[in-house]
Every structure is written in C-alpha cells, then in structure tokens.
Amino acid sequence: MSWLNVKHAMNLSPWIRIPLMWPEPGLEDVAEAQTPESWARYFAEGLWEDFASEKPAAGEVDLLTDILTMYAVRAPAAFPDFEVFLHLPHPREIPLPAYVDLVEIEEGEDRETALRALTHADASYSIEPPIVEAITSPYLGSGLRVLRYYQDEDSNEVHVGLRYAWRYEKGTEAADILIILADPDAGRILRAIDDVDEFARTVRISPDEEADAWQSP
C-alpha cells in the first residue's frame, strides 16, 4: 500500500501545515507541537521574524497567534482526516486553508468521470460555468484544476472554489488525490493561485516502506 506524501509541501513557503493531533505524533518532545496555542505562537513569531523590515505593531503578534489558533482548532473539522495547510504569504493576511487527501476509487469508475466529479467540474450549483483546466504534476502526471463560483448555502455569499484532482495508478494500487480550497474573496484565491499550483505539484504518492522516514530532511 502507498501513502500520501506531503513532506515537501511542509517545507514550502508560504505554507504552514496544521497538525491533525495534539501533541503531534512523533514530536512529543517538541514544544510547538504540543497544543494549538503553542503551535500558533511559534509560527506567529516566526512569520513576523521573516518580515524583519516590517516591525509588527503592538498586539499584532498576539493577534496572529489568536488567528492561527482558531484555524488550528477549526480548519481540520471542515474536511476530517484531510491534511491541512494554510497559505499565508504575509502575517497581516487572512490564512487560506488547503485540504489534501487520497480518495478511494469506486469500482468501475473511469478516471475522467472520477476527476470531474471530485473537482465539481460539472457542478449544477455553480453561478457560472466552472473554469476547467488541465494541470501537470511531475509526480502524478496529468490532472484537473477547476475554479468555480457558487453561492454558500449557509451565508448566501458568493464563494470561490478551487479544486485539483489526479489519479494515481501503479501495479495493483490506485487512488485519486484531491486538493480543496474555498474562500468568499475571489481576489484571495486568484492572488494565491500560482502558489497553490506550486504546492499542488509537490504532493506525491510514496511506497509504504518509506512511511517511517517521511519527515526526515
């Protein structure tokens, strides 16, 4: 069996991975991996250090800590068991979550049908026809990227959805890879799209025997 490898995405700026458990398994002795609050403080301070030419105003480090804590607690619940990454190119921006996971292939479902369904390429609820484009990954080959506008059922706001999907097939193993983003701010998605493309192209499938060492440098 193979597994989803997000090691390289974890080290990709401007992305931050949210642990799915606290303390994070394997990092029980690492202070910032103990709680959402300690994780958020670590990254809030680190992000502002990365922007050394811009000194944070009073309270801005605490504000970013609170924002990251909120995302660490709430974001994983949107798509349980998905890996969660935050796109945060500047400490004054609002994080944009990206969700990544493997999806089991339904018996008899062909690749094109599955990828279009996963990306909502033919969604009837879209406000206008989705923008469906091919995207190539050096590890997963050809996939789909779909950008669509839709009305959120709870808020009635117009949201922008961005999804990527690939099919992985090797020997007797097969799975679909899905990446999901959504935001009410179209500009936020469009400004991030180049970074999201780069992020998506780092995701890969690795043999199960490498799993024990997947967090190694």
From TrEMBL:
<protein>
    <recommendedName>
        <fullName>DUF695 domain-containing protein</fullName>
    </recommendedName>
</protein>
